[in-house]
Amino acid sequence: MATALKIKDAEETTLVGAPAAQGTTSDAKPSRLPRLSRKQLGNIGMVFLSLSAGALLWHIATAINLDFYINFSNVPSPWRVLTAFLGHIQTEIFWTHIGVSMRRILISYSLATVLGIFIGLIMGRSRIARAFIMPYIEVVRPIPAVAWIPLAILMWPTEESSIIYITFLGALFPIVLNTLHGVEQTPEVLVRAVQSLGASRWAVFRHVVIPAALPSIAAGLAIGMGVSWFSLLAGEIISGQYGIGYFTWDAYSLINYQDIVVGMLVIGFLGTGSTAAVKMITKPMLKWQKRTR
């Protein structure tokens, strides 16, 4: 009798405990997605407020035909520009213009990144290389992109290659100079400390010089992206048949004011997005800065 009661009590305990175990498993909460902090939400709200205020001032200036030193009588209203933009995004040719410009940026900027970082690192660590290359940089760098267009058309076999060349030059010099600056700012104490431990020149270059120069390299890449868009548009306006720069210039030739503003705003957003992408790509390389703070 006592044995039967023990078995019965054990079965009841098992039955009572089973739902509790199941409930523990079913009540496990899934991992939540990271939420934006108050600071991030505040920044987003400030950006939205700033853009809204700018659009409102633009609307008021066009509505009253403001003519006080700056003439807004021929400037289209925000609503007309938005309507034109919504119409263009439904056409294939508009996306062709954007795609061609993005392809040119990708090719020229990639070449400028590889060559610019390489030249900057070599110049920063070699006095001979710096003395040999710097005169060419100082002479060629002040030449604007528009001045290169006639010669680039004569030098390169196609208009496409000439536009890419002009865009490449625009991105190259900021990357080279910022990389050079970063290498020069490498603390000599760190270099000597690593050398005293028996590190080779390549080890010093890889583990000390390059990491120390990364912040300046990242800044040069961001600046180079902005300048590359400026150079690209100059080339597309003069010698292009496709591209968002050609689209904007063609709208000006046809006296299509709202399309001019559409092209300008698309260029601005593409440039902003490209620069943000560069910063996002280079951000993981700078994690060591947070550890040292």
UniProtKB/TrEMBL annotation:
Segments passing through the bilayer: 41-61, 105-124, 136-156, 162-183, 204-230, 260-281
Keyword Translocase found:
no
Q: Would you say which domain of life the source belongs to? A: Bacteria
Record's CDD domains? TM_PBP2
What Gene Ontology cellular component terms go with this record?
plasma membrane
Query: Membrane topology per the record?
Result: Multi-pass membrane protein
Name all ABC transmembrane type-1 domain ranges.
98-282
What PANTHER family does this protein map onto?
ABC TRANSPORTER PERMEASE PROTEIN MJ0413-RELATED (PTHR30151:SF0), ALKANE SULFONATE ABC TRANSPORTER-RELATED, MEMBRANE SUBUNIT (PTHR30151)
Entry-linked Gene3D superfamilies = MetI-like (1.10.3720.10)
As for family, the record states: Belongs to the binding-protein-dependent transport system permease family.
Q: What is this protein called?
A: Binding-protein dependent transport system inner membrane protein
What GO terms describe the biological role, i.e. biological process, of this protein? Answer: alkanesulfonate transmembrane transport
What is known about what this protein does?
Answer: Probably part of an ABC transporter complex. Probably responsible for the translocation of the substrate across the membrane.
Please name the InterPro entries in this protein's record: MetI-like, MetI-like_sf
Provide this UniProt record's keywords sorted from A to Z: Cell membrane, Membrane, Transmembrane, Transmembrane helix, Transport
Q: Where in the cell is it found?
A: Cell membrane
